[in-house]
Amino acid sequence: MTHQPPVLLVVAPGDSVYRGYCLEQVASAYDIVVITPGPITWEEPHVIDHEVADPHDPDALLAAGQALAGRHTIAGVLTWNELLLVATAHLAEALGVKSNPVAVMHNCLDKHATRALLDRHGVPSARSVQVASLLEAALVAERIGYPVVLKPAGQAGSVGVIRVDAVEELPRALAFATTGAALHGGENNEVLVEEYLDGPEISVECITQNGSTTAVAVTRKQLGFAPYFEETGHTVDAADPLLDQVAPIAAAAIRALGIDHGVQHVEMRLTATGPRIIEVNGRIGGDLIGHLVRLATGIDLPRAAADLACGTTPDLEPDRIRAAGITLLHPEASGILTHRGAAEQFVDNAPWLERLQWLRGPGDEIVLPPDGDVDLARAGLVVVTGYDATKVEQRLAEAAAHITLTMLAADELS
Questions:
Q1: I need a surface site. Which of 1, 107, 132, 213 has the fewest CB within 10 A?
Q2: CATH 3.30.1390.10 fits 198-321, yes or no
Q3: Which ranges in the chain are annotated with CATH 3.30.470.20?
């Protein structure tokens, strides 16, 4: 008798660039059915069935999930889309499969609720107050002390997040954060004024089963485009000595939010008073971070997430001690991309160049923050490997030196 793999339902798998590896790795062990907002394209080789529905519409999502459950025995439900964690928990509950409670996923996505729970459980975080007006924001910022950070309480991916250094910057910053908060898909439209956490930013990639958390990797982050918080690169080193220091804090944050199982991406800053939590994401990190973790450690985060969704114990044993990194390629200024390229001799003689992927082509407009989001601001990406983080950083710099982006500025078009 042929053994049939369990069927996993993935809600909104995303795009092939940043999430293709997730679906591909999960499909090696599970039969995948998906709910997508439009007809499937790149997902087709990895799935056995699908339904088209707006995943942000609760009734449409439930109907699509029930249709798939009518044709297959669903073992688990999963998403790696931050803004769909609550909706996916609702769907899992309706289909009777394992899931973190809806309220727990809400607390992850609602940053105001997150801060309150972290504070209640004594987890080092940032002072944070939800505000409803410019006057209230000014009073809170004065009390906390500049610089402060304004951010939407219910968005993801640094949308609407801005640093404010002085009171005269506050009106424009509040308008920016309020606009971000109102974008489609957010958990709520509120804005927070928070203490600015000064220091290097990292994330801790965690796997939790039955309330017990294992931190498997630290991601060192590079940020750009201040006063905004655009992520421009990430590095993962399997031998990073920081892991033992930050793992207990990440685990405490996950425990404070009541997360019982799954993969978590816990962001924090290394401040003068120690590591402090920025936020807890109840899903695999973006920007190919899960791919970097596998290159560096051999641990398969998408597979672990699928295993946990289906009630199976994941394999958390690393099988290598390496490092990997990614640079997100941005031009120096907004405009029209007229040429992109990489020195052919370099590409042919760099076996450690894991991938060079273009996201924008000649003739495309590239718009840098604050006007452009990650989809409009990035021209491409580079992933490299090495035996440690220092070597990876050297190789990322070497790769960047051999890549050319030629732009035509907007004011040159007339």
A1: 1
A2: no
A3: 198-321, 323-414
pLDDT value of position 411: 63
pLDDT at 413 over 80: no
Q: Which of 340, 337, 361, 358 is nearest to 409 (CA)?
A: 337
Round to whole Å and give the CA distance between 294 and 284.
Answer: 12
Per-residue pLDDT at 180: 87
Backbone angles phi, psi at 406, to 5 degrees: -110, 130
Domain 7-99 classification at class level: alpha beta
Contact 109, 187 (CB under 8 A): yes
* Burial (0-12, 13-18, 19+ Cβ within 10 Å), 153: buried
* Continuous H helices in 154-215: 170-181
Query: Residues near 55 by Cβ (< 8 Å), separated by ≥ 6?
Result: 11, 12, 35, 37, 61, 81, 84, 87
> Element (H or E) spanning 80, and its range?
none
CA nearest to 309, candidates 89, 156, 105, 87: 89
Helices 301-309, 16-27: axis angle to 10 degrees equals 60
CATH of 127-195, one of 3.30.70.1150, 3.40.50.300, 2.60.40.10, 3.30.1490.20: 3.30.1490.20
Pairing type for strands 323-329 and 353-358 reads unpaired
Report which secondary-structure segment, H or E, holds 365.
strand 365-366
Q: Where in the chain is the domain with CATH 3.30.1490.20?
A: 127-195
Question: How do residues 205-257 score in pLDDT, each as one tens digit?
Answer: 999 999 999 999 999 999 999 999 999 999 999 999 999 999 999 999 999 99
What confidence score (pLDDT) does residue 412 get?
Answer: 62
**Which residue reads 């308008």 in tokens?**
175
CA–CA gap between residue 393 and residue 385 (Å, rounded): 9
Give me the CATH topology for the region 323-414. D-amino Acid Aminotransferase; Chain A, domain 1 (3.30.470)
Residue type, 140: V
Q: What is the pTM of this model?
A: 0.94
